[in-house]
């Protein structure tokens, strides 16, 4: 049995005095009465359910008129025995604070008060001790499935409940992970079990929030939630994306946010739900009646897009003519085409250039010009005069050999009407090549006044040269070696010289004589040449003539002595017969029909030489 120690100590002498008084009174026939103390339990309430392990405060009001309260003996008990706890008095209310020790189930709690005379008062209540369940907790916010934007406080809401704790404010909260140490985080939920605060210092990243809720008897549970924080202002315009609870309606555009200037871009720049209204960059459009792209300034309106019949460019000075506007080209037509208030001014695109004609020859000086729609006095359209101080000098004048550029060709005396023809004298023999000429007033270098040089690479060949015997036309008369220095008469056939020598020599001597003059015994290539040679020798002598055909080297194999291929022969019938095995050389005129005969080479006769013209 639990008794208040101080009261217990005082109660014993009171009992002893009471006994003595009783004895004394009995002896003296004195009668003494005593009233039993009254006690009424205040807490807990009748049939109150108390969770297991919870601290219980038992209190009772005691009424005892004879004995001071502090001298009363007061005991709290349950079916299991006397309750142990911390007792106290406050006026007439005695309390016992019991931390634990109450068994589960229905308990009858009795409080007994004994006064100094042994009188007893008591009261009882029934309570139920229930098994204690740990409180529960769950985050209502933030949600793990939602991204939150940095810069906007994250609303943290924790819902707690406890079937064993009627007053949820008695629960305690300890915040952990990203919420640890947050000064705004409450230590207890409110009366409906909500603990709420805002986290406003989170940067983009992944976070864990946790909270431990503990009931008055120490049972606890933990709630956690994952938190994803992203950059809610991707365009860095100072406004958070609407998707994260901000007011930026386009977080990809730094020019779009509440309060931004509305622009003509078909975008809701200021996030007010409208587009292009009161845009700062609206253009002024002007009525364009003639549809030339320019409007009149007297009828204008501001808009993001051109209204029908309006254009962006103003300044049309005649909105009834589409060819008159500020963008038109000024022309020489007596009209202010480009609306600059000037008519046919220097801006006209068809201005003509006129050139000063000081000498009055109808040709202007290119160095002195002016632009105008009409020619000023002393100006002409031509600009080709190279000397505007000389009437005789202009592009229409005749060039003459006077050292001046009369026709303005930039070259004095070129193509002059009185210039001479000069001939290239490449061999410097005083005679020029008629095929290579220059026409000039003055004799050009390497050119001469006389032509007819038939070989301008050989200074021994020219019209005044002596004809030699060299297969050349030395005197340029068209004949080679004729009337020259050859030892025999010379005739020309098809551009080659032939020498006809009336002499009496054998074949070898004839060959040597031909060689001495740069010739060889004649080679006859075809019937035409044979006929000409036969006819020509007859004009000098009807006797026989050596030609170059022979089989001296190989009997029966006739060849031309100059080494030419044998492609033609004109042997007489039965020839060559090599009479007496000694006829190796061919002769002409043995037969009268121009045919050939073989003859002994030692026989003497005339001979024909031939040379190839050089």
* Overall strand count: 33
User: What general form does the structure show?
Assistant: elongated
Largest sheet: 8 strands, mixed
Give the full name of the CATH homologous superfamily of the domain at 5-130.
Answer: Immunoglobulins
Distance linking N and C termini: 169 Å
Mean pLDDT comes to 89
The CATH architecture designation of the domain at 5-130 is Sandwich
- Extract low-pLDDT stretches: 1-31
Radius of gyration: 75 Å
Can you walk me through this structure?
It is elongated and about 215 Å long. Strands 26, 27, 28, 29, 30, 31, 32 and 33 form an eight-stranded mixed β-sheet that branches. A five-stranded mixed β-sheet has the order 2-9-8-4-5. A hairpin with an 8-residue loop joins strand 23 and strand 24 (433-440). The protein is 8% helix and 30% strand. The protein has three helices and 33 strands. Among the domains are: 5-130, Immunoglobulin-like (Sandwich), CATH 2.60.40; 136-230, Immunoglobulin-like (Sandwich), CATH 2.60.40.10; 489-610, Mannose-Binding Protein A, Chain A (Roll). The model is unreliable at 1-31 (pLDDT under 50). The longest helix has 24 residues, at 5-28. It is mainly β and 614 residues long.
Outline of this structure?
Helix content is 8%, strand content 30%. With 614 residues, it is mostly beta strands.
Topology of this protein?
Blueprint: H1 5-28, E1 38-43, E2 49-51, E3 56-63, E4 73-78, E5 81-82, E6 86-90, E7 93-98, E8 105-114, E9 120-130, E10 136-141, E11 147-149, E12 154-161, E13 172-177, E14 194-199, E15 205-214, E16 220-230, E17 283-287, E18 296-303, E19 310-311, E20 352-356, E21 369-372, E22 379-380, E23 420-424, E24 433-440, E25 447-448, E26 489-493, E27 496-505, H2 507-516, E28 520-521, H3 527-540, E29 545-550, E30 559-560, E31 585-588, E32 596-599, E33 605-610
Parallel strand pairs: 2-9, 11-16, 29-33
Antiparallel strand pairs: 1-3, 3-7, 4-5, 4-8, 6-7, 8-9, 10-12, 12-14, 13-15, 15-16, 17-18, 17-19, 20-21, 20-22, 23-24, 23-25, 26-27, 27-33, 28-33, 29-30, 29-31, 31-32
């Amino acid at each position: 049995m639990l008794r208040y120690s101080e009261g217990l100590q005082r109660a014993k002498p009171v009992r002893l005095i009471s006994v003595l008084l009783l004895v004394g009174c009995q002896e003296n026939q004195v009668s003494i009465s005593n009233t039993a103390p009254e006690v009424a339990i205040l807490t807990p309430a009748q049939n109150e359910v108390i969770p297991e392990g919870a601290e219980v405060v038992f209190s009772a009001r005691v009424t005892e008129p004879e004995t001071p309260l502090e001298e009363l003996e007061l005991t709290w008990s349950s079916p299991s025995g006397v309750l142990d706890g911390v007792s106290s008095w406050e006026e007439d209310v005695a309390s016992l604070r019991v931390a634990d020790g109450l068994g589960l189930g229905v308990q009858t709690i009795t409080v007994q008060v004994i006064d100094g005379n042994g009188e007893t008062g008591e009261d009882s209540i029934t309570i139920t001790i229930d098994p204690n369940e740990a409180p529960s907790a769950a985050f209502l916010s933030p949600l793990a499935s939602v991204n939150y934007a940095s810069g906007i406080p994250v609303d943290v809401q924790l819902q707690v409940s406890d079937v064993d704790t009627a007053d949820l404010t008695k629960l305690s909260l300890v915040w952990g992970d990203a919420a640890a140490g947050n000064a705004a985080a409450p230590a207890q939920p409110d009366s409906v079990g909500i603990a709420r605060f805002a986290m406003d210092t989170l940067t983009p990243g992944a976070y864990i929030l946790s909270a431990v809720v503990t009931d008055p008897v120490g049972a606890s549970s933990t709630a956690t939630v994952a938190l994803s924080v992203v950059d809610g202002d991707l365009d860095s315009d100072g406004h958070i994306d609407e998707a994260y609870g901000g007011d930026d309606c386009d977080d990809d555009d730094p020019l779009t946010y509440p309060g931004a200037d509305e622009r003509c871009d078909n975008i809701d720049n200021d996030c007010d739900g409208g587009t292009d209204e009161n845009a700062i960059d609206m253009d002024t459009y002007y009525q364009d009646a003639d549809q030339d792209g320019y409007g009149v300034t007297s009828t204008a309106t501001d808009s993001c897009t051109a209204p029908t019949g309006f254009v962006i460019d103003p300044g049309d000075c005649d909105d009834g003519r589409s060819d008159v506007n500020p963008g038109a080209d000024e022309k020489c037509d007596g009209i202010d085409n480009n609306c600059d208030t000037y008519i046919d001014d220097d801006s006209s695109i068809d201005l003509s250039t006129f050139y000063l004609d000081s000498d009055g020859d109808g040709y202007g000086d290119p160095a002195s010009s002016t632009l105008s729609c009409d020619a000023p006095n002393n100006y002409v359209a031509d600009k080709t005069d190279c000397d505007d101080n000389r009437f005789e000098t202009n592009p229409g004048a005749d060039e003459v050999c006077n050292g001046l550029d009369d026709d303005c060709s930039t070259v004095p005396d070129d193509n002059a009407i009185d210039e001479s023809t000069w001939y290239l004298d490449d061999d410097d023999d005083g005679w020029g090549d008629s095929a290579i000429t220059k026409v000039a007033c003055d004799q050009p270098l390497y050119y001469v006044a006389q032509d007819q040089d038939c070989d301008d690479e050989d200074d021994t060949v020219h019209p005044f040269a002596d004809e030699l015997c060299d297969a050349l036309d030395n005197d340029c008369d068209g004949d080679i070696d004729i009337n020259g220095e050859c030892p025999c008469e010379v005739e020309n056939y098809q551009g080659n010289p032939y020498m006809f020598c009336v002499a009496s020599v054998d074949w070898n001597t004839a060959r040597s004589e031909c060689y001495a003059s740069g010739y060889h015994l004649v080679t006859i290539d075809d019937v035409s040449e044979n006929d000409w040679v036969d006819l020509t020798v007859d004009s000098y002598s009807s006797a026989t003539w050596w030609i170059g055909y022979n089989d001296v080297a190989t009997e029966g194999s006739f060849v031309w002595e100059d080494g030419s291929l044998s492609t033609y022969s004109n042997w007489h019938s039965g020839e060559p017969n090599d009479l007496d095995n000694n006829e190796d050389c061919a002769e002409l005129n043995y037969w009268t029909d121009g045919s050939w005969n073989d003859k002994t080479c030692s026989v003497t006769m005339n001979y024909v030489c031939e040379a190839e013209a050089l």
